[in-house]
Write a structure and sequence with these properties.
The complex is a heterodimer. Chain A is α+β, with helices and mostly antiparallel strands. Chain A contains ten helices and nine strands. In chain A, strand 4 and strand 5 form a beta hairpin. The chains are: A alpha+beta, B alpha/beta.
Chain lengths: 388, 249
């Protein structure tokens, strides 16, 4: 079945020709390359590594960044559309691209030296190197500032020690951006994963993001040269600024997952006959469809406006929190309601909705949980921090 | 090698096509326009031949109205060097279209002209070879393989039950079929670069259509099926109906 995404408010007419072409290219890529294999990838808990060169060829890795690093220099809305189209396929594929772009290339671009940028960015854009981002620890998730990972200055080099957890791409990464405390202050380090003392065991048996690699990072006194420190930032704002970039993509991505669910469920409700008529003719089902369509339309409007703010340079992290919180929360609820409309068929892997629902459980939690974003916006509105 | 690609903006194959209120044309509201799928093979082949030859340019040429520039932009995003929009209204008559295109490309510098074997809207399979006739150059249709041998081309084309291998000198015109190549996606860098590539607009020569469309009608809706019974017992009745009423076995 061809994918027919909901566009109730004709958002398409707001897009430029370039944005529309970017969307079309990624939509075709997902339909041709990802959809035929995603069921098996999900079942086998396998990330489709073979698609990384195709992603690179299309320019999906680091798409918003400058041409001199081999990137396409796309605007924020086009970048958002990439995420949306990828996540209509699977949150895992979108996660791969978000991490590479927003969490690995971004900190090197924003805080790295020219030598670091010139060396790493083209390789990451070409997919020659895969990156991961180490912030979260087993005991520090919503409270990353409490991290235990330490860097010690040994004069000629640094020594890193600690454990990171829930790291997308960890096991397949060539390079990790690791955040660690140096003299009590959070700093970013570029850590090649083949260094002595570094290991990244995969977290197995996940119920969610099964087509994505999730790992622990274990740093046992890993020695890294001085030039691997990201000099441009100190403190928690370093990693948080990266998260703002990635959350921006997630807010768009969630619209894709929700659209995929809605498309599948609407089609199903029109063809599934009970009591001699399509279940779409029952008021209770229509109520659910209308709610889903309205939430998707609201989500589309949020990210479109967010993209305008980003393009204008006036987007704040709290704006991103609102879109991430709303859109992922809505997408998760849409997937749950969608699964309900699919009835018993909804638990079969023949339908994509359950996979999206399971994935969105992770997406709702990672990069700032729904509740943490509530507190971020709450603090922004009231001036009162309610985190502790 | 300088290559011209003649391409047509056609309705996306996902689009629902309905007759317009006049009963003689197609309702165009809400249709999105794409490069004809066979024209995509032509563009891909042009890019590959250009790159293999190491020099020259690929020029995408399309005749039509305001929907054409968007579609030409796609060809530029795939890698064509520049585009020419021959602005005018396309009629039903393939000869009229061929005359317009031939007039538009006549002065251009080309070694090879490629186009799709057909546009998927009117399905004439005619415009390409007519353009070649009007330009007085050789043409080969329904091409599935092109090999360059000096200033000649060795070409494979599909015929009923087999492959025909022909040779022709350049300049020539080839109409491209599925199987010739695997068209690339427009890359994001290609899309951004396309903005900066030149697209010229020229007015289409005025050519009268010699064919008039009298009426466009939707197919009558399909009739509901008939259930002749269930289980093995129903098979004889079903076979009888298939043979005697449907006449398909």
């Amino acid at each position: 079945m061809a994918y027919r995404p909901l566009d109730y408010y004709d958002m398409n007419s707001l897009l430029t020709d370039e944005e529309r072409m970017v969307q079309q290219t990624v939509r075709e890529f997902v339909a041709d390359q990802l959809m035929p294999i995603i069921r098996d990838c999900n079942r086998d808990a396998r990330f489709p590594l073979e698609l990384v060169p195709r992603c690179a060829e299309l320019g999906l890795l680091g798409a918003p960044y400058p041409e001199k690093y081999g990137c396409a220099s796309l605007g924020p809305i086009a970048y958002g559309l990439i995420n949306q189209e990828l996540e209509r396929g699977d949150s895992g594929m979108r996660s791969f691209v978000s991490v590479q772009t927003g969490l690995v290339m971004y900190p090197i671009l924003a805080y790295g030296t020219d030598a670091q940028k010139d060396y790493w960015l083209p390789k990451l854009a070409q997919g020659e190197k895969i990156g991961c981002f180490g912030l979260t620890e087993p005991d520090f998730g919503s409270n990353p500032g409490g991290m235990l990972t330490r860097a010690v200055d040994k004069g000629s080099h640094y020594v890193l020690a600690g454990t990171k957890a829930w790291i997308t791409n960890g096991t397949i990464a060539d390079v990790a951006i690791v955040w660690a405390k140096l003299d009590g202050e959070i700093r970013g380090f570029i850590v090649e994963t083949n260094r002595e003392g570094f290991s990244a065991p995969e977290i197995k048996n996940k119920f969610s993001l099964r087509a994505s690699v999730t790992s622990d990072l274990i740093l046992q006194d890993v020695e890294i040269p001085k030039e691997n420190l990201l000099p441009g930032v100190k403190g928690l704002k370093g990693p948080l600024s990266c998260l703002t970039q990635a959350r921006y993509g997630i807010a768009w991505g969630a619209v894709g997952a929700a659209s995929a669910v809605f498309d599948e469920v609407l089609t199903y409700s029109l063809s599934r006959i009970q009591f001699d008529k399509p279940i779409a003719s029952f008021q209770l089902v229509q109520n659910k469809l209308v709610w889903m369509a309205t939430e998707i339309t609201k989500s589309q409007l949020l990210v479109y406006r967010l993209g305008q703010l980003k393009a204008a340079g006036t987007m704040r992290a709290q704006h991103v929190s609102m879109a991430k919180r709303n859109n992922v929360g809505a997408a998760l609820e849409i997937a749950r309601v969608g699964r309900d409309i699919l009835g018993a068929n909804g638990i079969s892997s023949e339908y994509h909705t359950f996979r999206h629902m399971n994935n969105l459980e992770s997406v709702n939690t990672y990069e700032g949980t729904y509740d943490i974003h509530t507190l971020i916006i709450g603090e922004d509105l009231t001036g009162i921090a309610a985190f502790v | 090698m300088n290559i011209l690609v003649l391409m047509k903006a056609v309705a996306d194959s996902e689009a629902t096509i309905k007759p317009a209120a006049d009963g003689k044309s197609v309702a165009l509201e809400g249709i999105s326009w794409v490069i004809g799928p066979y024209d995509e093979y032509a563009i891909e082949e042009a890019l590959q031949q250009r790159d293999a030859s190491g020099s020259g340019e690929v020029v995408a040429v399309s005749f039509g109205g305001d929907d054409v520039p968007k579609v030409l932009r796609n060809a530029l995003a795939m890698g064509a060097d520049r585009a020419v929009h021959v602005k005018g209204t396309v009629s039903f008559d393939p000869l009229a279209t061929a005359r317009v295109l031939a007039a538009a490309v006549k002065g251009m510098n080309y070694d090879l002209i490629l186009c799709g074997k057909q546009a998927i809207d009117h399905d004439h399979h005619a415009v390409g070879v007519m353009v070649a006739e009007l330009l007085d150059i050789p043409s080969v249709s329904v091409v599935t393989k092109i090999e360059r041998a000096g200033d000649k081309l060795k070409i494979e084309r599909e015929v009923e039950g087999g492959v025909e291998i022909v040779e022709t000198a350049m300049p020539c015109l080839l109409t491209c079929n599925k199987g010739l190549n695997e068209p690339r996606y427009a890359s994001l860098k290609g899309i951004m670069a396309a903005k900066k590539k030149p697209m010229d607009e020229v007015a289409a020569e005025s050519v009268a259509s010699q064919v008039e469309v009298l009426s466009i009608q939707s197919r009558p809706p399909r009739q509901g099926g008939e259930i002749v019974g269930t289980g093995v017992e129903a098979v004889p009745a079903l076979v009888k109906k298939l043979r005697e009423e449907a006449k398909v076995i």
